[in-house]
Amino acid sequence: MRVLLVEDDTAAVGEITQVMKGAGFTVDHVESGEEAVEMLRHYDYDLAVLELMLPDIEGYEVVRRARAARVATPMIVLSSLTRPQAKVKAFSIGADDYLTKPFDPDELVARMQAILRRSKGFSEPTLRVGPLHLSLDSREVSVNDVPVHLTGKEYAILELLVLRKGMVLTKDAFLNHLYGGMDEPEMKIIDVFICKLRKKLQAAGAGNVITTVWGRGYMLREQTAGRVEKPAETAAPVAAHTETVAA
Asked: Domain named OmpR/PhoB-type: which ranges (predicted)?
């Protein structure tokens, strides 16, 4: 999943990025609040993590402007400000969680995963779509409780499809999710990944859960007898930016 990190302290950026990378996240980093607002307005992030004390505008203002622009991206404040008033203000303007520095890496990852799950309509660590189970914590996949062995890229594609079930994802969205704008191969590689992923899931008994929406992309949906889901709107582009770490 792709995260926007808003932090101007170089040492903190290195530490936080390392933690996120270890948990399988892809990170885009900006140092200023103005940059953060623009990135949140123009790209579809799964989560944003931001410091309150930024060099231009406060993190509060980033959250306020984003929410005023109807940006629904979940936001976690990760700040050295510990007073209760700071937390109350952050929550009141639209932040989803607040964690103080110094932070425990495992707690940060756990909070990020919990907010991601809830924002996508899942309440448990294991995401379930029919017989298909995907664990965000262990990055393991099973069908009818039988493990399905996927490559890193195949898992990343399936994770994105599951978390955005019912939404059409373009090939550009997959490329940016997998490569973050760095050394991207030709677009047809997505068709190859999808083909291999489909074969593995079908062989395990999941059925054809990945649907091709001709001229638009791919989507994942549950096979419901007698009912065909209408594809949701195509996802907004996933950002490609500097300081990107591949998942």
From this structure: 124-222
Name the burial class of residue 195, with classes exposed (0-12), middle (13-18) and buried (19+) by CB atoms within 10 angstroms of its CB: exposed
Closest alpha carbon to 218 in 174, 185, 182, 187: 174
Quick one: 85 exposed, middle or buried, by C-beta within 10 A (0-12, 13-18, 19+)? exposed
Q: How far is it, in rounded angstroms, from Cα 127 to Cα 119? A: 12
How many angstroms separate the CA atoms of 53 and 148, rounded?
44
pLDDT tens per residue, range 43-100: 888 899 999 999 999 999 999 999 999 999 999 999 999 999 999 999 999 999 999 9
> Could you tell me the two tokens for 238?
């996933």
Cα-based angle 73, 74, 78 (whole degrees, multiple of 5): 125
- Amino acid letter for position 193: F
Is 34 exposed, middle or buried (CB count within 10 Å of its CB: 0-12, 13-18, 19+)?
middle
Amino acid in position 225: A
Split at pLDDT 50, 70, 90, the class of 183 is low
